[in-house]
Amino acid sequence: MKKVILLCTLAVLMFACKSTSATSTNTDRKSQVAMKGNWVISSVTYPGSQYVKVNTFQIADSECFVGSNWKFVSNNNKGTMALTKANCMAFSSPITWFVNNDGQFVLKVLNAGEKARKVKEGYILYVANQTESSFQLIDKIDVAGKMTDVVYQFQKVN
């Protein structure tokens, strides 16, 4: 009897202490549907940008993302992104993404032919100022011990 009570207590504690992550919450379908289509990053801004370089998504300098093309497909949470800026490394990749109910944009950059479930690393950004023709993704980075917002401004491409 004591073993049964102990096991029940442990089970309750394990479920009560379960952490919530960005990937375990429900999706915000309204935000996702509003992102459907083709977009371009019109600017990347953050305090100290003239002194500090940001390596966005471990791909390239943040300035190389200005003018990059993004396609978001909301019904299957897939898409593509492509860096095309002159004097920057050309890069193109499939992506998988979603927006959770906490306003977090969860992104995985994939290699060609790679399944999203096999990719364990991803990025969590915050959605802000979303309209029909624009939205912002905000990344939080540590600059000399201070959390700083990197703002990616997206504009809809017709």
TrEMBL record:
InterPro entries: Lipocalin-like
Key words of the record: Signal
Lipocalin-like domain location: 35-112
One Pfam match: Lipocalin_4
The keyword Signal belongs to this UniProt entry's keyword annotation: yes
Signal sequence bounds: 1-24
Name this polypeptide is given: Lipocalin-like domain-containing protein
Species of the source: Flavobacterium sandaracinum
